[in-house]
């Protein structure tokens, strides 16, 4: 069976390998063939048939597809040695890379992307993202680092520091790694980003069973990474950080921790906060909810012991977790009443429920460069390729409902999707079609939401909840007696780092410095008055429209390693972000946000603080943030 063979052995059975290639994306295979041969004729021939970055937007005729598969097999047979490496590759010139990229995603990709994508694709088998690691290794004495949190970013930081031989300790409040992927166990929990970009660039997974993996698969992947890179011995579990205090005399951070009711003090040269934005559940502020006698279960604190079968259940919240959990609850409860404050725009994605075929999994693992090109297509399709559609057109004729022509087209297509499933039920249509522009709030993947709303045991309520008593939820028009309430109401994203008390120079409290709910940072990583304090997934680094937090995380840890390199190179003990750099960056960031959909007059979301400032989301393209974080600017910092 071809799935059990490596590339060299599989090439000895060309008929079988062709069968696996039929499961692969033909546009991606063409990118591979053009790259390893420098023959652009293949790209030119498929270009008319590629209308987007995803497989369902590609309609290459079968005879041409088969020709490409056959030619790729023949080329690989001639170039693959018994070690499964390619010999005599005619490396394509940089000036043609943008052409390959453009055809692969169905639109023009600017040449400014070439450097970033060459690094992402790792064409030269170099470690461009790790060049600071190689420099840091050469220093005999290195700073001690404490990482707070062992979620996706904390694990990433640990892997990179380990490679650089920098001593570190990861402090984790739970009894396991994983962060949000350990804590969230509600039915249906999973990614709404393609999992092939939800993986470290240096550690692709070929075990994914779906295009969009569920929680257990992501958690398993993170445990695999921890085991492979030997991080467990560096993690202190069941330990909470109570406070961090900077000692300006000794240039050290004093860390107060609590474990099993025992307090302990630690000391570190550098702190990396990897606690993220989505780790502190936010409960609805509804009068009387504390009086409810039956269970109130937050999706982030799921009660596996509660039996939902044949119960009358209320769901408060219709965001990302509500979208995932509600269809699962509807299958088992007697009655599900969904209380919706604001409808969300919902995308129809043919791949959301699709399984990965065995053939495609084999191709991802074995065909050279296929997985890398595939990631590129996903990056473009889910992030930078749609960035322009999130920017306001000041001359747009319908600014109350959309922000530009493309955004309006998205809106029309999504309404058509909703109508195709709901039909002419005007009452329900009025409830589920938003009045604000697409992407104003987090876009949701359709998890059979509208089919669920048509079930006889499901009711959607849009009336405001006035209060909750011992047994029921009360609106203006009705009382709903319930056996349980599920709250899918998200997280306290504005309270970054909280409840950890962080005291910087001269005892400055980070929470006070941020005016409680206005977190800011230079490139989302550093803050004035807090030397040697770095954040991953910090302020304004969330990707609300798509992309990958993993990509941002890799940008951030490279920047942090660059800072460590500056300290070692110049024999300094501490570095502190200058106020001027901090303010200049955030001024530009806020100006860019003024142009973005998240500041639209009709949009009120967890992305914004009480003053309306966007504090969670990045307004930048991936290529912008990659450039910002490629190397720290020494002039942005004060050194001691």
Overview of the structural elements:
The protein is α/β, with parallel strands linked by helices. A five-stranded parallel β-sheet has the order 3-2-1-7-19, with helices on one face. A five-stranded parallel β-sheet has the order 8-17-9-10-13, with helices on one face. Helix 3 (about 25-35) packs across helix 5 and helix 3 (about 25-35) packs antiparallel against helix 6 (about 95-105). It is globular, with a radius of gyration of 26 Å.
Compile the SSE list and pairings:
Layout: H1 7-10, H2 14-21, H3 26-37, H4 41-46, H5 62-79, H6 94-105, H7 114-121, H8 131-136, E1 145-148, H9 152-163, E2 168-171, H10 180-183, H11 215-228, E3 235-236, E4 240-247, E5 252-259, E6 262-268, E7 270-273, E8 296-298, E9 312-316, H12 320-330, E10 335-339, E11 346-347, H13 358-366, H14 370-382, H15 405-422, H16 426-432, E12 444-445, H17 449-453, E13 458-461, E14 465-468, E15 472-475, E16 479-481, E17 484-487, E18 501-503, H18 510-513, E19 533-535, H19 549-569, E20 575-577, H20 579-594, H21 622-629, E21 637-639
Parallel strand pairs: 1-2, 1-7, 2-3, 4-18, 7-19, 8-17, 9-10, 9-17, 10-13, 11-12
Antiparallel strand pairs: 4-5, 5-6, 14-15, 15-16, 20-21
Strand coverage percent: 5-15%
Q: Strand order of the main beta sheet, please?
A: 3-2-1-7-19
| Shape type | globular
* Sequence stretches where pLDDT stays below 50 over 5 or more residues: none
Q: What is the average per-residue confidence, as pLDDT, rounded to a whole number?
A: 94
Task: Estimate the helix proportion, in percent.
Answer: 25-40%
User: How large is the count of helical segments?
Assistant: 21
Would you count the extended β strands for me? 21
**First CA to last CA: what distance?**
62 Å
Broad structural category: alpha/beta
- Major sheet characteristics: 5 strands, parallel
Radius of gyration: 26 Å
């Amino acid at each position: 069976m071809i799935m059990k063979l490596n590339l060299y052995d599989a090439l000895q059975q060309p008929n079988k390998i062709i069968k696996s290639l039929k499961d692969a994306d033909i546009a991606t295979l063409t990118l591979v063939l053009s790259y390893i041969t420098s023959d652009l004729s293949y790209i030119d021939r498929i270009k008319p048939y590629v209308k987007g970055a995803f497989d369902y937007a590609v309609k290459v005729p079968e005879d041409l597809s088969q020709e490409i598969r056959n030619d790729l097999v023949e080329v690989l047979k001639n170039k693959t040695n018994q070690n499964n490496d390619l010999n005599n590759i005619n490396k394509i010139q940089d000036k043609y890379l943008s052409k390959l990229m453009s055809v692969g995603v169905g639109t023009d990709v600017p040449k400014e992307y070439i450097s970033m994508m060459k690094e992402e694709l790792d064409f030269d088998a170099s470690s461009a993202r790790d060049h600071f690691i190689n420099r840091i290794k050469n220093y005999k004495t290195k700073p001690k680092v404490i990482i707070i949190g062992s979620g996706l970013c904390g694990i990433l930081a640990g892997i990179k520091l380990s490679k650089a031989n920098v001593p570190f300790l990861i402090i984790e409040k739970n009894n396991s790694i994983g962060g949000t992927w350990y804590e969230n166990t509600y039915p249906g929990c999973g990614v709404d980003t393609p999992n092939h970009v939800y993986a470290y660039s240096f550690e692709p997974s070929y075990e994914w069973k779906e295009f969009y993996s569920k929680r257990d698969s992501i958690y398993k992947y993170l445990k695999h990474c921890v085991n492979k890179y030997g991080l467990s011995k560096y993690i202190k579990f069941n330990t909470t950080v109570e406070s961090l205090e900077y000692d300006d005399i000794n240039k050290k951070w004093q860390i107060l921790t609590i474990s099993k009711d025992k307090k302990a003090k630690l000391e570190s040269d550098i702190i990396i906060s990897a606690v993220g934005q989505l780790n502190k559940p936010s409960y609805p502020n509804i009068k009387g909810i504390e009086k409810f006698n039956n269970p109130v279960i937050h999706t982030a604190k799921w009660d596996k012991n509660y039996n939902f079968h044949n119960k009358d259940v209320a769901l408060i919240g219709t965001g990302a977790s509500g979208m995932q959990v509600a269809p699962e609850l509807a299958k088992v409860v007697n009655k599900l009443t969904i209380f919706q404050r604001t409808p969300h725009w919902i995308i129809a994605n043919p791949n959301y429920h699709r399984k990965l075929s065995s053939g495609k999994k084999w191709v991802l693992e074995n065909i050279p460069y296929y997985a890398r090109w595939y990631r590129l297509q996903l990056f473009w399709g889910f992030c930078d390729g749609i960035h322009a559609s999130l920017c306001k057109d000041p001359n747009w004729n319908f600014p109350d409902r959309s922000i530009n022509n493309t955004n309006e087209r998205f809106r029309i297509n999504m309404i058509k999707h909703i109508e195709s499933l709901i039909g002419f039920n005007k009452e329900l249509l009025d409830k589920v079609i938003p009045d604000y522009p697409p992407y104003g709030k987090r876009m949701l993947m359709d998890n059979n939401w509208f089919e669920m709303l048509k079930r006889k045991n499901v009711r959607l309520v849009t009336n405001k909840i006035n209060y909750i008593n011992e047994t029921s939820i009360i609106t203006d028009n009705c009382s709903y007696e319930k056996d349980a309430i599920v709250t899918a109401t998200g997280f306290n994203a504005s309270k970054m780092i909280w409840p950890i008390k962080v005291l910087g120079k001269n005892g400055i409290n980070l929470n006070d410095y941020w005016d409680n709910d206005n977190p800011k940072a230079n490139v989302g990583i550093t803050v004035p008055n807090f030397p040697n304090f770095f954040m991953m997934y910090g302020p304004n680094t969330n990707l609300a429209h798509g992309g990958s937090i993993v990509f941002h995380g890799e940008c951030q840890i490279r920047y942090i390693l660059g800072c460590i390199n500056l300290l070692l190179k110049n024999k300094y003990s501490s570095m502190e972000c200058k106020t001027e750099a901090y303010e200049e960056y955030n001024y530009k960031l806020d100006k860019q946000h003024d142009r973005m959909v998240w500041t639209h007059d009709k949009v009120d979301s967890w992305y914004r603080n009480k003053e309306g400032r966007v504090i969670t989301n990045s307004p930048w393209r991936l290529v912008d943030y990659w450039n910002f974080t490629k190397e720290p600017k020494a002039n942005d910092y004060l050194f001691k």
